[in-house]
C-alpha cells in the first residue's frame, strides 16, 4: 500500500484522466499502481519507446564526441546525447547477512520480490523487519497464519492510515478541486496534499495538543501525523517527545499484553519515515495484531538472531523459532545502491562509485553530478524526501527544460554539467537543513544507509 492518498499518487498533467480514472479506496495498493501505470502507457502510446529485457551494463562518456556510449545486454551499444537514469530510490533489495540462511528448509521471500499468488495461510511465518512494509505485512497476514513471529530490529511509531472506501461525495469533491489540490502539493513540504500545520507545539495548551494529536490519529496517515499536527514535530525535541508520548500511550491502550506492549514501544526520536500501518481487511491496526495469541514479538536488541537453521531461526538465548516461511521486510540498498551496481563512467573515466567514495552520494538538486556531463538522475542523491510522483514530475520538468534550452542555444553538441561549486553549495544546504532537524539524530536507519554494512552515514 502506498502511504500517500490515492488522489495525489498519480500524474498531475492529464486533467481529463484525473477526472475519469477510478480509484476505489483512499490508498492505492500494488495491483492498482501497476494497472494505473499500464493505463498511462496505453493512453499515451508510450510502449513504442520502450525496450524490454534490455539491461544497461555500463555507460561511458567521451569528450571527443560529447556522447554517452551505453553497453546493454547482448553486447549491443547505444549512443546517446543525453543519459537520464530513472533507477529509483528503492529497487536494489537488501538481504541482511545472517549465518545459515542457505540451510533453511522452508520458503524464504523478500517483500520486494513477492511471488504472485503465494499463500501463507495456515503456516508458521517469521517476519524480519518492521518498517513501512513490515508493519503492513504483519497487519495483513496475522489472522491468516498458524503462527506469526515478528523479529523486531527497531520498534516503530506507527499510526493508522485511515484507509476506507471512496464515496461518491468524496470523489466529487476531489474532481471539483484538482487545481487547488495540485497547487497545494507543489507548494508544500511533503507534497501529500493535506494542509501542513502552521502552529507550534509550544503555542498550544496541553488540552489542545491532545485534541490535535487525537484528531490526526483518527484521520490517519503517518506524514499527516508528523507534519499536519504541529509545525515543529520534526525540528523541536520537546514537540517531538510530545508526539512520541501520545503514540506510546496509544500502544499501551491497544495492546493488552504488557510485555508485548513494552517491546513494541519505541523510545528514540520520532524522526524516521513516518509510518502508517494500513488497516487489515477486517479493520484491525498493526498494534491490534499483537492481541492475537498466535502473533509473537521478538526484540532483537534483547535477543539477537544467532543463526538461521533448517527448521527456523535461533536467537541468542537459545530459543529456536520453528518456521515454514521466513519473510524479509528488510528494505533496500537505498539511493546510491542502484547506481554503484552499474558501471557509469564520466569525464576522464571516473566512475560514479569513485566520485562518491569520499563525500558519499551527492548531487546538484538531486539531478546532476559534476564530471558527468549530459547525465541526469531522477530521484538522485539528496533529492526530495517526499511524495514521489510530484517530486519526480518536478525533476522531469526541470531536466526536459534544461535539454530543450541546451538544444536551442548549445550548437550541435551541447554540454550540460553542474559545477563542483554548485554541487558543494547545494550539498551544504541539504546538510544544514538535516542538521537543524531531528532526522539527523536518527541516523541508524535506511535513509542514511544504516541497513547496509560498511556504508558511511
How would you describe this structure to a colleague?
The protein has helices spanning 15-20, 30-43, 132-141, 168-176, 178-186, 206-219, 222-227, 237-254, 258-264, 337-340, 352-355, 388-409, 420-435, and strands at 56-62, 67-72, 76-80, 83-85, 107-110, 124-128, 147-152, 158-159, 275-276, 295-299, 305-309, 312-315, 320-322, 325-328, 343-345, 375-377. With 457 residues, the protein is α/β, with parallel strands linked by helices. A 5-stranded parallel β-sheet has the order 5-14-6-7-10. A 4-stranded mixed β-sheet has the order 3-2-1-15, with no helix packed on it. A hairpin with a 4-residue loop joins strand 12 and strand 13. It is globular, with a radius of gyration of 23 Å.
Total strands: the figure is 16
Mean of residue pLDDT?
Answer: 91
Q: Sheet bearing the most strands, described?
A: 5 strands, parallel
Spans of 5+ residues with little confidence (pLDDT < 50)? Answer: 450-457
Instruction: Name the helix and strand elements from N-terminus to C-terminus, one letter apiece.
Output: HHEEEEEEHEEHHHHHHEEEEEEHEHEHH
Biggest sheet strand order reads 5-14-6-7-10
Total DSSP helices: 13
In whole angstroms, the N-to-C terminal distance is: 28 Å
Helix content: 25-40%
Radius of gyration: 23 Å
Percentage of β-strand residues: 5-15%
Task: Please tell me what the overall shape is.
Answer: globular
Structural class: alpha/beta
Pfam families: FMO-like
GO molecular function: flavin adenine dinucleotide binding; N,N-dimethylaniline monooxygenase activity; NADP binding
Protein name: FAD/NAD(P)-binding domain-containing protein
InterPro entries: FAD-binding_Monooxygenases (IPR050775), FAD/NAD-bd_sf (IPR036188), Flavin_mOase-like (IPR020946)
Amino acid at each position: 500500500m502506498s502511504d500517500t492518498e490515492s488522489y495525489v499518487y498519480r500524474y498531475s498533467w492529464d486533467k481529463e484522466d484525473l477526472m475519469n480514472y477510478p480509484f476505489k479506496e483512499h490508498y492505492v495498493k500494488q495491483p492498482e499502481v501497476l494497472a494505473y501505470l499500464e493505463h498511462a502507457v496505453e493512453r499515451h502510446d508510450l510502449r513504442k519507446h520502450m525496450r524490454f529485457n534490455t539491461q544497461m551494463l555500463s555507460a561511458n562518456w567521451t569528450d571527443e564526441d560529447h556522447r554517452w556510449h551505453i553497453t546493454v545486454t547482448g553486447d549491443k551499444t547505444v549512443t546517446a546525447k543525453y543519459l537520464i537514469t530513472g533507477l529509483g530510490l528503492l529497487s536494489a533489495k537488501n538481504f541482511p547477512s545472517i549465518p545459515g540462511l542457505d540451510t533453511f528448509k522452508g520458503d524464504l521471500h523478500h517483500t520486494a520480490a513477492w511471488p504472485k499468488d503465494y499463500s501463507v495461510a495456515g503456516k508458521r511465518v517469521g517476519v524480519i523487519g518492521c518498517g513501512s512494509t513490515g508493519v503492513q505485512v504483519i497487519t495483513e497476514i496475522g489472522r491468516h497464519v498458524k503462527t506469526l513471529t515478528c523479529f523486531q530490529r527497531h520498534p516503530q511509531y506507527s499510526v493508522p492510515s485511515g484507509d476506507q472506501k471512496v464515496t461518491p461525495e468524496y470523489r466529487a469533491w476531489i474532481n471539483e478541486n484538482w487545481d487547488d489540490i495540485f497547487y497545494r502539493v507543489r507548494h508544500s513540504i511533503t507534497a501529500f496534499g493535506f494542509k501542513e500545520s502552521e502552529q507550534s507545539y509550544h503555542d498550544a495548551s496541553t488540552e489542545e495538543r491532545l485534541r490535535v494529536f487525537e484528531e490526526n490519529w483518527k484521520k490517519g496517515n503517518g506524514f499527516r501525523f508528523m507534519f499536519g499536527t504541529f509545525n515543529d514535530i520534526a525540528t523541536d525535541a520537546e514537540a517531538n517527545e510530545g508526539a512520541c508520548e501520545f503514540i506510546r500511550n496509544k500502544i499501551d491502550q491497544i495492546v493488552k499484553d504488557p510485555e508485548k506492549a513494552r517491546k513494541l514501544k519505541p523510545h528514540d526520536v520520532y524522526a524516521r519515515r513516518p509510518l502508517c500501518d494500513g488497516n487489515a481487511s477486517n479493520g484491525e491496526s498493526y498494534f491490534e495484531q499483537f492481541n492475537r495469541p498466535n502473533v509473537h514479538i521478538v526484540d532483537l536488541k534483547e535477543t539477537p538472531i544467532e543463526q538461521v537453521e533448517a527448521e527456523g531461526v535461533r536467537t541468542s538465548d537459545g530459543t529456536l523459532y520453528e518456521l515454514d516461511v521466513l519473510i524479509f521486510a528488510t528494505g533496500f540498498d537505498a539511493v546510491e545502491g542502484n547506481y554503484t551496481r552499474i558501471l557509469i563512467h564520466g569525464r576522464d573515466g571516473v566512475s560514479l562509485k569513485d566520485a562518491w567514495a569520499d563525500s558519499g552520494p551527492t548531487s546538484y538538486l538531486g539531478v546532476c553530478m559534476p564530471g558527468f556531463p549530459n547525465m541526469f538522475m531522477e530521484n538522485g542523491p539528496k533529492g526530495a524526501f517526499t511524495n514521489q510522483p510530484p517530486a519526480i514530475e518536478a525533476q522531469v520538468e526541470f531536466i526536459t527544460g534544461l535539454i530543450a534550452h541546451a538544444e536551442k542555444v548549445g550548437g550541435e553538441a551541447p554540454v550540460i554539467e553542474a559545477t563542483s561549486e554548485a554541487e558543494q553549495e547545494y550539498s551544504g544546504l541539504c546538510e544544514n537543513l538535516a542538521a537543524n532537524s531531528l532526522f539527523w539524530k536518527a541516523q541508524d536507519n535506511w535513509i542514511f544507509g544504516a541497513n547496509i554494512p560498511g556504508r558511511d552515514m
